[in-house]
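Hi U.,

Before I forget, here's the chain from the pilot set. I'm dumping it here mostly so it's searchable later in email.
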Amino acid sequence: MADQDRIPLFTLLATHPNTAALKTGKVRSDLVDFKFADVKVSNTEFKPLVREHKYDLAELAIVTYLQAYEKGNSYVLLPATVVGRNQHHTIFYNAERGALTAGDLTGKRVGVRAYTQTTGAWVRGFLAEDHGVDPERVHWVTFEDAHVARYRDPEFAERAPQGKTIKQMLIDGELDAAILGDVQEEGPIRHLIPDHAVAAQAWAKRHGGVPINHLMVIRETIAEGQPDVVKEVYRVLKESRAAAKAVYDSGEADPLRFGVSNIRQSFDTIVDYALKQKLITERVSAGEVFERAVAILGSAAE
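Structure:
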């Protein structure tokens, strides 16, 4: 197929080690012409993705997808993880304000970018499961609204004053802890879970692998009318992932799992967490959510 005849897909996909081969052209498709959006941080585009259906193909945080699925959405979820990671290292406290452990968070003020952030959902989940912290008894301080328009934060979450930033509020003592993501300890800012790597590895062994964060979605009309495009997208994503194999083969469970059987336990866990945290109102199964992808991809998606 000539280049001008390839099917264009307006695509939201950040440059990760596992997507670099596709984005640089090392992995190429004769069927699809990927029109990559000029976006460095993909989550800044999740809101227009789910509210305006801006993209044909995109990476999307799993909690955002679950909320969009519940409210009605125009995208089919593919069993293709493009971002996955342990989460125990993402929550911090200010050691200058005194000692603090994960079990001490009841009644405390904890900052998170958005209550609906997928990282926040995973962290609240293991805090409840492993440290007895009821999410409804923590004061969650947020800085952004949900990507899905019709979702409203629960009553135990509040918005930070305008102009405030999460890290500075932690430094100033206006927060007791904060979910900061992939940052390093700096000065008095310390990991809330000092043995986070060991704790994360143990959690992953119990839950079928490290948490999934971003999976790929494709426009529903494309899935219905052009199933060969879905198959090709899935193929090149797997090939690009394979090109970065050495980066992720660290002896831990693969954070970038493909196939429903490999994702199912992680998917069921985040659904359970999301229900308990009032992020969604009804339980959904992996079989239900991935049904259309499996119907197109067959055994490759299982």
